[in-house]
Amino acid sequence: MSNNKASGPSKISYEMLKHLTGEAFNLSPVLANACLIHHGDIPADWREVFVYSIPRPHEFDA
């Protein structure tokens, strides 16, 4: 992912995750996998997102 993207409701930005080291880095996939394996689901808060419309300064042709 690119840097300088807006964080979600958790307020955890990609830059924060990118700089995880040691035990925090190793435990982050363990936490995500535990949620899926033991609960068969992810926490509802992880599903929340904010979508903001960003106007383009010119016509978008893609």
From TrEMBL:
Domain of life: Eukaryota
Protein name per UniProt: Uncharacterized protein
Organism listed in the record: Rhizophagus irregularis (strain DAOM 197198w)
